[in-house]
Every structure is written in C-alpha cells, then in structure tokens.
Amino acid sequence: DQEDSDGDGFTDHDENEWGSDPFDADSVPNEPPVDLHLTNASITENNPATTLVGQFEAIDPDDPEQIGQYVFSLVNGQGDEANEDFHLDANGTLLTNHSLDFEAKEIDGNATLSIRVRVSDDHNASFEKAFSIILLDESQFISNFVAELNATYGDEPFDLNATSTSGLPVQYFSSNPSVAEVDANGTVNLKGAGQATITAFQNGGGITDAAPDLNATVTVGKADLDAIAHEATRAYLQENPELTFHYEG
C-alpha cells in the first residue's frame, strides 16, 4: 500500500483512489481547494431580498486556470451566525435572503455578518472558510422640503413638514427672523417684508450620520395698505365736519 511506483510522492494506493496513474509522475492525486475568495464583502442596508453581494471563487492547486467545476454552499460551523440572512447559489453567487437593517444588526457602531462557506471540487474534496459581510448604514437625507416659498406680510403662519429618512426630527434655522421666524416644530411666522433663508438640518445621533442641510428661500412681499375714510355728515349751511380715516393692511 505504501509503494510509489512513479516516485511522485504519492502512494500507488492513493493514486488509484483518486483516479490518477500510479506509473506516471505527472499524474498526481486530486488535492482539495485551499482557499476561497469573495469578490465583494459589503452591502448597504435596506436593499430588497435577492440583492447581489458578491461571487465566490475557489483557489485550487489542481486548477490554476480556474476552469474546474465547483459547488458552493453555506454550512454550519464556526462563523455561521448570519447564514440565514443570505442565499448562496451552487455556482457561488451570494445573495441576500431579505432586506437587512443596519440598526437591527449594529454592535458598537458596526454591523458585521458572519457566514461559513464550503466549496467542493468535482472529486468532492472540500474546503471551508468563514467570511465577514459588512452591512453599511444608509446615509439619511431630508425630504418634503420646498426650495422656494412666497408669502405676503400678514399671511397666517404655516408649517414646514420636512422629514428625515432616519425618522429623527428635522430642525430649522432662519437667517433673518425679522422677516421669517421659525420655531422648533417648523412653524413659520411672518414678521416683515423681505427675504430669509430657512435651513432644514438633522445632525444625526448615535449610529446615524448627519443629513445634508437643505435651504429654502422665503420671500415675503409687502401687504396692500388701504386708507378707509370714516363716515361723516353735516347739516345744510353748517361747516364741514373734520374728515378722519384709518389704514388697513
């Protein structure tokens, strides 16, 4: 059983087991793959199920041109904690099983998902390795905020209804409160004619980064001013009464 007829370092028994020629030094038994490579190991949260993560490739000393047939699978073992979050096709394509939420997976500001993968060659020789998939936090942004507002002095207060994709409350700042004053709830009170820039911002917090600021230009026009005469009468041949009026607007 220990005889090595062709002197290639493999016994005749092993070569017969693997289907190589025990009398040809250039024909050696199959070796299992020695490593796995993943083309991409990160994905942004909130993508739909079946989103492509990356492609696995086998590193096999018997197949330097990588033209062999391999079967890839998720397997139990050390580093398999997030196997259920992913689907691995037999050809090595790694997909998400469902939409992934950074906040649900985050620990100390990072979300790393561990999977364990096995690759088997056409002789069923296999290699296993654990991989860390980085789940990226989707940057928040502000929406429902118009870029230009026109009003007239004397108009009723109105509300800004900007929202952030993180769900955190949006805050506001007015560059000219003497024209347009805005409170913490986004209610704008018009204080005079002119122009002001209202900035909507969300500074983030915890694991959420700040959103890019948005600006709205508020132009407040002057109100119409009417002079209203007060009614007055005089008797025949009497002096004219004093005429009075007031302004409205």
From TrEMBL:
A Gene Ontology cellular-component term: membrane
Region Disordered, annotated ranges: 1-36
Gene Ontology MF: a single term: calcium ion binding
SUPFAM superfamilies in UniProt: Cadherin-like (SSF49313), Invasin/intimin cell-adhesion fragments (SSF49373)
Subcellular location: Secreted
SMART domains: CA
Signal peptide: none
Gene3D superfamilies: 2.60.40.1080, Cadherins (2.60.40.60)
Domain Cadherin residue range list: 35-145
Protein name: Cadherin domain-containing protein
Originating species: marine metagenome
